[in-house]
């Protein structure tokens, strides 16, 4: 019954938030203070012209000469690279994806709002009330529930965790749920992803053996279900990892493996290892897309900035976690397709379903290699502009 | 995210930056947000590594030269003021600015200062001259491995020949400006803001 009550509260939350935002904005206008709206779109206008077009244009404006007999190199060519470079410093597609999605509507969580000001008394009271409810009611409620579950069955465990976080999850297309002997691949935003998926099905986890809190949790999980854990040293050996994984999937009685091929992890090197590896194993992949509704609580965990406990506390004291899970139809590596290509195909499918932007540069799939090739491409393009004219000259 | 509150930009600072660079209030706050998102160490300054982490900049053939432009001689960290001062070079030139009192020191985004930014990209040792060697090095960065040394050498020689008026076999800033006097620098070295 309590859960239902909380459910109702959550339904009405967006309305409250919107109202609060409107009041805040009105108050800001009255004080003639420009209210900073966290980014809703790009800062600068980027010209979509190509290298060749732009450099030709720069040269054209600089000389009276006919373009056919234009010299091979102009000192003004550098303007193109300079401007492009500074544009990317001001605003680039990748880095902004990795900062938490900033919210347009102030959701009473101070953390999300940079311009928090006490505009009106009513607003203050509302904020205070919200704070009270959050810390006074929901947090202890969750702790109570958590203490009870130490001996429960695996699935029940996770389901209650989910309720403790007051998560509202919608599962779509459950007919595509991962079957035994397969690998489940999902995009990764937070450790809660694990809880969300595990509460809807039993999986074998793959991961590194951690010390501390995580270690305790891992050991207890192993008792319930057979998982595949690695020592830190073993992680370095890609072949060992791949072998262990394929052994597990070959055994059809074993549960499907849950892998997050991208995204942050406590130790970033281990993520890199699994990435290509999981797609090289010749078995069916069940992609899963997880998308969080950012209006209710920021599930994103910037592991380079916050520790686990800090994160958990934040999560527990947020209003709720609302997300959707889509089980996508299974995919297999096609004839002649290499692991990287397959990985990209799966990634694209997940991104499309979850409405996430499919970036070429995520997490780090051979990041450095990709960078060099792109740079070389630009250099090649530019060289053609210089050398091309030279060949014409020698001909005439 | 909670720790960012401690480094919020104060109103006085915003005003100072506004005066110095000409950026608007909202542009400054947005660029501040950008600055803090690049500042992984959260110490209020950016290092060269922080810039190199930007993928689009890393693939720019002149990426390192551009990054260098942010750091004054001998320094490895740049604070928000310095960051804005360098970015200010790429502000578009507004018409009403051209009429502003000439007594005020030249704005950072003037034509001359834009050209100076570009000049400094070539001038590797900051001696206010572009030598043949420096030009070769920068050219090499731009073309990669696709052009032979001889070809590149002749391109450099030709360029210096055309620009050098005082016969010292290198290009001074004035000579540089003369070569580019017809180029629409204001437009080509400007970045348009959406707000």
Automatic annotation (TrEMBL), chain A:
<dbReference type="GO" id="GO:0016020">
    <property type="term" value="C:membrane"/>
</dbReference>
<keyword id="KW-0444">Lipid biosynthesis</keyword>
<keyword id="KW-0012">Acyltransferase</keyword>
<dbReference type="GO" id="GO:0008654">
    <property type="term" value="P:phospholipid biosynthetic process"/>
</dbReference>
<feature type="domain" description="Phospholipid/glycerol acyltransferase">
    <location>
        <begin position="182"/>
        <end position="293"/>
    </location>
</feature>
<keyword id="KW-0594">Phospholipid biosynthesis</keyword>
<dbReference type="GO" id="GO:0004366">
    <property type="term" value="F:glycerol-3-phosphate O-acyltransferase activity"/>
</dbReference>
<keyword id="KW-0472">Membrane</keyword>
<dbReference type="InterPro" id="IPR045252">
    <property type="entry name" value="LPCAT1-like"/>
</dbReference>
<comment type="pathway">
    <text>Phospholipid metabolism.</text>
</comment>
<keyword id="KW-1208">Phospholipid metabolism</keyword>
<keyword id="KW-1133">Transmembrane helix</keyword>
<protein>
    <submittedName>
        <fullName>Glycerol-3-phosphate acyltransferase 4</fullName>
    </submittedName>
</protein>
<dbReference type="InterPro" id="IPR002123">
    <property type="entry name" value="Plipid/glycerol_acylTrfase"/>
</dbReference>
<keyword id="KW-0808">Transferase</keyword>
<comment type="pathway">
    <text>Lipid metabolism.</text>
</comment>
<comment type="similarity">
    <text>Belongs to the 1-acyl-sn-glycerol-3-phosphate acyltransferase family.</text>
</comment>
<dbReference type="GO" id="GO:0019432">
    <property type="term" value="P:triglyceride biosynthetic process"/>
</dbReference>
<keyword id="KW-0812">Transmembrane</keyword>
<keyword id="KW-0443">Lipid metabolism</keyword>
<dbReference type="GO" id="GO:0005783">
    <property type="term" value="C:endoplasmic reticulum"/>
</dbReference>
<dbReference type="Pfam" id="PF01553">
    <property type="entry name" value="Acyltransferase"/>
</dbReference>
TrEMBL record, chain B:
<keyword id="KW-0519">Myristate</keyword>
<keyword id="KW-0479">Metal-binding</keyword>
<keyword id="KW-1003">Cell membrane</keyword>
<dbReference type="InterPro" id="IPR018247">
    <property type="entry name" value="EF_Hand_1_Ca_BS"/>
</dbReference>
<dbReference type="InterPro" id="IPR011992">
    <property type="entry name" value="EF-hand-dom_pair"/>
</dbReference>
<dbReference type="GO" id="GO:0005737">
    <property type="term" value="C:cytoplasm"/>
</dbReference>
<feature type="domain" description="EF-hand">
    <location>
        <begin position="26"/>
        <end position="61"/>
    </location>
</feature>
<comment type="similarity">
    <text>Belongs to the calcineurin regulatory subunit family. CHP subfamily.</text>
</comment>
<keyword id="KW-0539">Nucleus</keyword>
<keyword id="KW-0677">Repeat</keyword>
<keyword id="KW-0653">Protein transport</keyword>
<feature type="domain" description="EF-hand">
    <location>
        <begin position="151"/>
        <end position="186"/>
    </location>
</feature>
<dbReference type="GO" id="GO:0005509">
    <property type="term" value="F:calcium ion binding"/>
</dbReference>
<keyword id="KW-0472">Membrane</keyword>
<dbReference type="GO" id="GO:0005634">
    <property type="term" value="C:nucleus"/>
</dbReference>
<feature type="domain" description="EF-hand">
    <location>
        <begin position="110"/>
        <end position="145"/>
    </location>
</feature>
<keyword id="KW-0597">Phosphoprotein</keyword>
<dbReference type="InterPro" id="IPR051875">
    <property type="entry name" value="Calcineurin_B_homologous"/>
</dbReference>
<dbReference type="InterPro" id="IPR002048">
    <property type="entry name" value="EF_hand_dom"/>
</dbReference>
<keyword id="KW-0813">Transport</keyword>
<protein>
    <submittedName>
        <fullName>Calcineurin-like EF-hand protein 1</fullName>
    </submittedName>
</protein>
<keyword id="KW-0106">Calcium</keyword>
């Amino acid at each position: 019954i309590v859960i239902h009550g909380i459910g109702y509260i959550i339904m009405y939350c967006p309305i409250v938030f919107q109202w609060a935002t409107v009041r805040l904005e009105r108050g800001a206008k009255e004080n003639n203070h420009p209210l900073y709206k966290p980014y809703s779109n790009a800062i600068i206008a980027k010209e979509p012209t190509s290298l060749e077009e732009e450099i030709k244009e720069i040269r054209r404006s600089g000389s009276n000469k006919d373009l056919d007999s234009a010299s091979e190199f102009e000192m003004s060519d550098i303007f193109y690279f300079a401007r492009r470079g500074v544009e990317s410093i001001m605003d680039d597609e990748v880095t902004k994806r990795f900062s938490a999605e900033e919210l347009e509507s102030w959701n009473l969580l101070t953390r999300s709002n940079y311009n928090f000001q006490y505009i009106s008394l009513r607003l203050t009271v509302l904020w205070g009330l919200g704070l009270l409810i959050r810390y006074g009611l929901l947090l202890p409620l969750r702790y109570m529930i958590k203490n009870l579950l130490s001996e429960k069955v695996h699935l029940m465990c996770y389901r209650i965790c989910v309720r403790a976080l007051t998560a509202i999850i919608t599962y779509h297309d459950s007919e595509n749920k991962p079957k035994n002997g397969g690998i489940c691949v999902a995009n990764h935003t937070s450790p809660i992803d694990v809880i969300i998926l595990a509460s809807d099905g039993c999986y074998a986890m793959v991961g590194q053996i951690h010390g501390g809190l995580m270690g305790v949790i891992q050991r207890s999980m192993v008792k319930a279900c057979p998982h595949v854990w690695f020592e830190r040293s073993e992680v370095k050996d890609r072949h060992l990892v791949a072998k262990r994984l394929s052994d597990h999937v070959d055994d059809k009685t074993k549960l499907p493996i849950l892998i997050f091929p991208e995204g942050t992890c406590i130790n970033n090197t281990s993520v890199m290892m699994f990435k290509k590896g999981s797609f090289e194993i010749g078995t069916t992949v069940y992609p899963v897309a997880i998308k969080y509704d950012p209006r209710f609580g920021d599930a994103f965990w910037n592991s380079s900035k916050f520790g686990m406990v800090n994160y958990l506390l934040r999560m527990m004291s947020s209003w709720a976690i609302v997300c959707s899970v889509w089980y996508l139809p299974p995919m297999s590596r096609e004839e002649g397709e290499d692991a990287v290509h397959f990985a990209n195909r799966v990634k694209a499918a997940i991104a499309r379903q979850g409405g996430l932007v499919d970036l070429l540069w995520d997490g780090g799939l051979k990041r450095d290699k990709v960078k060099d090739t792109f740079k070389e491409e630009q250099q090649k393009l530019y060289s053609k502009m210089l050398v091309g004219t030279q060949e014409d000259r020698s001909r005439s | 995210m909670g720790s960012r509150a401690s480094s919020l930009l104060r109103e006085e600072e915003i005003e100072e930056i506004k005066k110095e660079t000409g950026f608007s209030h909202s542009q400054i706050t947005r660029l501040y947000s950008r600055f803090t998102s690049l500042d992984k160490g959260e110490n209020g300054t950016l290092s060269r590594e922080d810039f190199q982490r930007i993928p689009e900049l890393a693939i720019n053939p002149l990426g390192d030269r551009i990054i260098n432009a942010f750091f004054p001689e001998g320094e490895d960290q740049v604070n928000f003021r310095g960051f804005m001062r360098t970015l200010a070079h790429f502000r578009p030139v507004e018409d009403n600015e051209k009429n502003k009192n000439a007594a005020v020191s030249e704005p950072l985004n003037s034509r001359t200062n834009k050209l100076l930014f570009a000049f400094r990209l070539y001038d590797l040792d900051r001696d206010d001259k572009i030598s043949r060697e420096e030009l070769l090095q920068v050219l090499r960065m731009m073309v990669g491995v696709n052009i032979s040394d001889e070809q590149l050498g002749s391109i450099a020689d030709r360029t210096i020949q055309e620009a050098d008026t005082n016969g010292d076999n290198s290009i001074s800033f004035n000579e540089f400006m003369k070569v580019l006097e017809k180029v629409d620098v204001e437009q080509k070295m400007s970045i348009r803001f959406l707000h």
